[in-house]
Write a structure and sequence with these properties.
The complex is a heterodimer.
Chain A (H helix, E strand, L loop, with lengths): L1 E5 L4 H17 L4 E5 L2 H5 L8 E4 L2 E5 L5 H8 L2
Parallel strand pairs in A: 1-2
Antiparallel strand pairs in A: 1-3, 3-4
Helix pairs in contact in A: 1-3
Chain B lengths: L2 H15 L6 H33 L2 H10 L5 H12 L7 H10 L4 H13 L2 H36 L8 H8 L15 H36 L16 H9 L6 H13 L4 H13 L2 H7 L5 H25 L1
Helix pairs in contact in B: 1-2, 2-7, 2-9, 4-6, 4-7, 5-6, 6-7, 6-12, 7-11, 7-14, 9-11, 10-12, 10-14, 11-12, 12-14
Classes of the chains: A alpha+beta, B mainly alpha.
C-alpha cells in the first residue's frame, strides 16, 4: 500500500501525517508513506484544499484532518 | 433568545457565589459567564450548520459549478457567496488559487473567492452574532460578500495576469493533463453526521482559549471602564479612526475569536460600531502569513495591489457603516 499526505507543511498537514504513522503503528500494517510538500507536485493531483490523504493514488480525504480511527478504517485490508 | 442564560448567570453569580448585585466584580463575572456560554452555544451551532452545507458543497463542486457555464458577471457573486460557506485554511490558498485559475475561472472571480472565504467564516459569524446581535451580523455578512465582489471585480478589471509569477504563467500555458482524483465516496447524511460533529468540535476547541481570554479581558473592561470613555478619543467625527483601525488590523492574524469580545466592550464604551466592523474585516480578511503564501503565485507588485485594493474597500465600508449604523 502507498499512502501520500499532500499539504504545504501547515499544522493540519503535519497532524494528518502523524496520524497516518500512528494508525499504521497501531494496526501493524506495512505501508509506504510519503509526504508531499511541493506545491507543483501537489497540483499534479488537482488538489484544491489541503491536507489530502491518498491511498494507492485515490484521494480519500480532502481538506480536513482525519483522526487515527478514521485512517485505520481506510487502510484496513 | 438568551434570557434564560442571563437568569442563569444572575443566579450563579449573585445567589450561588453570593457576590453583591451591581458590584464591579459581580458585573464582570456575570458578563463573563453569560458571554462565554452564549458564544460557545452559537459557535457550535454555526460551525455545525456551515459544516453541513460544506459536506454537500465541497470546494470541488463550487469550482465545477463556476466553470460549467457562462455567468456574465454573476460569477463574482457566486464565488463570494460560496467563499463564505467554505472553511478556509490559509495553507490551502495556493492550491486553491491555481486550481481555480487553471480550471478557467477568471482571475478576478478567483480573488473574490479568496477574499470572502476568510472574511466571512463560521467563527467570526458566530461571535459577531453573540456579541452584536442578529442585525449587525447580517450587515457584516452581506457587506462581506459585496466587498469581495467589488474588490474581485476591480482586481479583475486591472488585468493582473501579467503580474503572476513565472511558474504560474507557465502552468497556465501548458495545459497538461491533470490527474482527476476520484471523488470521496459519497455518504448518506446519516453517515456524515459524526464527521461533521467532530469537525465542528475541532473548530470550537481550536478557538476556545482565545475566546475565553477575550471574554475575560472584555469582562474586566466592562466592569471597570466607565461607559462612553472612548467617545472623547475615537468618535465618528474623527476621519482618521477608520483607516487607523484597518491598518492596525491587518498584521493581526486570525484572532477574531479573542478580539471581538473586547471589541464589544469598546463599542459599549463609545467606539463607533462601523469602525469596529472595519477593524474585524482587516483582521480576518488580510493577513501577513497568507500574503507570504500567496507570494508563490503573485509577484510582490501584484500582492501589494491585491492588499491595497482590499484595504481600500474595507476602509470605505467602515465609513459607510458609520454613516448608516
Amino acid at each position: 500500500m502507498k499512502i501520500k499526505v499532500l499539504g504545504p507543511g501547515c499544522p493540519k498537514c503535519k497532524t494528518t501525517y502523524n496520524n497516518v504513522l500512528e494508525a499504521l503503528k497501531q494496526t501493524g500494517i506495512e505501508a509506504e508513506v510519503e509526504k508531499i510538500e511541493d506545491i507543483e507536485e501537489m497540483l499534479k493531483y488537482n488538489v484544491l484544499s489541503t491536507p489530502v490523504l491518498m491511498i494507492d493514488e485515490v484521494a480519500k480525504i480532502k481538506g480536513r484532518v482525519p483522526d487515527i480511527n478514521e485512517i485505520k478504517q481506510l487502510i484496513k485490508p | 433568545m438568551f434570557d434564560w442564560l442571563q437568569s442563569f448567570a444572575d443566579w450563579l453569580i449573585y445567589d450561588v457565589i453570593g457576590i453583591a448585585t451591581h458590584s464591579k466584580l459581580g458585573d464582570a463575572l456575570n458578563f463573563f459567564v453569560f458571554d462565554t456560554v452564549k458564544i460557545f452555544i452559537l459557535l457550535f451551532v454555526v460551525t455545525l450548520l456551515m459544516g453541513t452545507i460544506n459536506a454537500y458543497f465541497p470546494i470541488e463542486k463550487v469550482r465545477s459549478f463556476l466553470t460549467k457555464r457562462k455567468w456574465y458577471g454573476l460569477d463574482y457573486f457566486v464565488a463570494s457567496f460560496f467563499g463564505t460557506i467554505t472553511p478556509f485554511c490559509s495553507c490551502s490558498s495556493v492550491p486553491l488559487f491555481i486550481g481555480f485559475v487553471k480550471g478557467g475561472i477568471p482571475l478576478g472571480v478567483t480573488l473574490a473567492f479568496l477574499i470572502s472565504s476568510p472574511l466571512v467564516d463560521a467563527v467570526t459569524v458566530a461571535i459577531f452574532f453573540g456579541m452584536f446581535g442578529f442585525k449587525t451580523t447580517i450587515i457584516y455578512v452581506t457587506s462581506g460578500i459585496i466587498l469581495s465582489m467589488i474588490a474581485g471585480y476591480i482586481l479583475g478589471r486591472m488585468k493582473l495576469e501579467s503580474l503572476l509569477t513565472d511558474w504560474v504563467k507557465q502552468l497556465l500555458i501548458n495545459k497538461q493533463v491533470i490527474y482527476e482524483g476520484e471523488a470521496e465516496v459519497s455518504l448518506s447524511f446519516y453517515k456524515r453526521v459524526p464527521g461533521i460533529l467532530k469537525e465542528a468540535l475541532e473548530i470550537v476547541k481550536g478557538v476556545a482559549l482565545y475566546i475565553l481570554l477575550g471574554i475575560a479581558i472584555g469582562g474586566i473592561m466592562h466592569g471597570y471602564i466607565p461607559t462612553g470613555f472612548f467617545e472623547a478619543y475615537i468618535s465618528k467625527s474623527n476621519p482618521f479612526a477608520v483607516p487607523i483601525a484597518v491598518i492596525l488590523g491587518i498584521p493581526m492574524y486570525s484572532n477574531t475569536a479573542g478580539i471581538l469580545p473586547i471589541m464589544q466592550v469598546l463599542v459599549e464604551k463609545g467606539i463607533p460600531l462601523g469602525t469596529v466592523i472595519a477593524f474585524s474585516m482587516a483582521v480576518v480578511g488580510l493577513s501577513i502569513p497568507e500574503g507570504l503564501l500567496l507570494k508563490k503565485v503573485m509577484t510582490t507588485k501584484m500582492l501589494l495591489i491585491f492588499f491595497a485594493v482590499v484595504t481600500l474597500c474595507i476602509i470605505i465600508s467602515g465609513y459607510l457603516f458609520n454613516l448608516i449604523l
